[in-house]
Amino acid sequence: MVDFGLRLLSCATLRLARPLHALLLVSGRFDDVFLSTKLLNLYSRLGDLPSAALTFRHAPTKSVITWNSMIACYVHHGLLPDALACFHRLLLTSSACPDGFTFPVTIKACWDLEWGKRIHSLAFRFGFVWNVFVSASVVHMYSRLGSIDDARKAFEEMPYKDQGSWNAMLSGLCQNGKAAEAAEVFEEMMIRGLPMNKVTVSSILPVCAPLDSLLLGAAIHVYCIKHGLDSDLFVSNAFIDMYAKTGRLEEAQKVFDGMTDMDLVTWNSIISGYEQAGEFSTALKLFDGMKESGVRPDRLTLVTLASAVAQCGDDRTGRTVHGYILRRGWDSRGIVVGNAIVDMYGKLSKAEAARKVFDRMLVRDVISWNTLITSYSQNGLANEAIEIYESMQSREGIAPIQGTLASVLPACAHVGALQQGMKIHGRAVRTGLQSDVFVATCLIDMYAKCGRLEEATHLFEQVPRRHTGPWNAIIAGLGVHGHGQRAVSLFSEMQEEGVKPDQVTFVSLLSACSHAGLVDLGRRCFEQMQTVHGLSPCLKHYACMVDMLGRAGRLDAAYELIATMPVKPDSGVWGALLGACRIHGNVELGKLASSHLFEIDAENVGYYVLLSNMYAKAGEWDGVDEVRALARHRRLQKTPGWSSVEVNKKVNVFFTGGQSHPRYEEIQGELRALLAKMKSIGYVPDYSFVLQDVEEDEKEHILSSHSERIAIAFGIMSTSPGTPICIYKNLRVCGDCHNATKFISKITEREIVVRDSNRFHLFKDGECSCGDYW
């Protein structure tokens, strides 16, 4: 006689299941409720939902176990409405009554709070409130649906609580971000003398990081060692995650090294821990170890790895990661993975590669769009970032969120797209996002960088100021406009309001002092940062100090500061010294600074241009040829100078020497007319800013072809008399153009605002707000 019960239990394929089903029918044993239920469970386990439903429908006798199995089958396959409909038919049509196993599985099918409360009420009416299994499921359900108060109430009303009930409450509180309450429940559990099991440990450990309670985590670890729980894979993974998130990577590594068995979660936890701690190279090495161990990475592994690759700038490994993802089709089908790869390429300065990945994605969410906007914005492609922002709404109908506005506003600031920035501000007001600290900070920064310091200040006074972001933005804005004293006064006000300054605050403050020539005041701020506020200077602070001293002509003091730095100077520090040497014509010290720069950041063409310009200004043409030859040998191309001006809500971009604009001839005519008027009132071209060995008449043409002159001429032609003109330039404005713009402002009786790579210049009545100090 065939043992159908044993055969149904051991069956592993559909190919064997169907003949077994036929044999049951032929033998007449299908009428056995026990066997028909086992057959239903077999089909469910093998993923054949239609056959499971058919078996259920044709079963001549259905016990409550049969109904429970069918409900569980629907839940297992994600058909939650069908599961609830099946439960409803049980109540209406069957002689069987729900039991203590019916409600837990039905509760899993509740996809919203209304259904959850309805099933909870039925469980209460059927008297299952005394069933600890049912009550624990109710706690789980409310926690899963985010109604933690209902979960807590259900837990408190339980007549009897076993370990599973306590674990359910702990897990629910942790999942809903109630770390402090979870710790209180855990403490009560310990007071009652209930032992911990591996579920308890994995439920409570996640609260250690948000509560910054390494002591709690360590105490649980000691308990686990004493009671032999530490060898459990589930528990060890939880400890790796806890130690990593509380900043104790060495302890996480010890747990990892002591493990005999490691699964995917183990590797993901340790790799993620190192990535979050900024130890990207170690994360990449661990990934190699993961592959060698035979554990296959999943989507989460690759997302973490993409972030690590982006942060350490490893282009080669980035392509390897992307290739791995492509082979599995994860980039087009998985939103999270696709977003991570777009972000990775953006941070690797490969905006076009980021766009290609974005275009391949079959499904995109608002985070996908935000990531691409950020990729363009951070790589200097501000116009493209703004275009993507517009397409996101017009083509896809996706409404911007906080992250969208915080991504696109820096792009508006970069090219001076004031009208577009104001339009985004309007959306922020309508959607209530203006009060968001990140959006508000970006808006203040945008207005300041678009030359509207009054609007930036007014907005700063309106937004919440409990965080450092808005303060840092307005202090930086005052700095680039040359208002160093106001920036320092605002810094004092910031402290009076109880807002603690951070590293970024002092970068903004020192930069403001540098632009205003407040050397002694800047030095005092630098000292107070360390002695009063307990902040250690980072490389950006040293770069600000070198820039401050260098601009003021104290080149020896700047070099002495570099020589005594406790950390190795980076390109920002040496670059500040080289820039100061160019301003003051110190060729020898400039050569020293450039020699360090060519070692540290050999691919940055800007340093070659600075040194070449320094040689040219000193008339050392052999030095110019030598530097240019070195740049050519390294296949470096000079960054073209461009300036933009917004006219009639359109940003017009002009390149130095460019002739492609449709109104080129008109612009040249305007430039010639301006030059004649300027010369008539005393303007003399300064040919020392022509960094080429050419004839005198050619030098005058070169100066007139600078991008800022072309943009100013176009602005004058395209706007009514007296209209202020705002120009945005990607490089530092040259001394002759600075002088010429003062004459143009006097001739045209206009305010002309020029924002270059260093600061703002407001030209009015033949004078500049910088006082010729920039």
UniProtKB/TrEMBL annotation:
| Matching Gene3D superfamilies | Tetratricopeptide repeat domain
Q: Which GO terms describe its molecular function?
A: RNA binding; zinc ion binding
Q: Please give the InterPro entries that the UniProt record associates with this protein.
A: DYW_dom (IPR032867), E_motif (IPR046848), PPR_At4g14850-like_plant (IPR046960), PPR_rpt (IPR002885), TPR-like_helical_dom_sf (IPR011990)
Q: PPR repeat boundaries?
A: 63-98, 162-196, 232-262, 263-297, 365-400, 436-466, 467-501
Pfam families assigned to the protein according to its UniProt record, in alphabetical order? DYW_deaminase, E_motif, PPR, PPR_2
Q: Which NCBIfam families match?
A: PPR
**How is this protein named in the record?**
(wild Malaysian banana) hypothetical protein
What is the originating organism of this protein?
A: Musa acuminata subsp. malaccensis
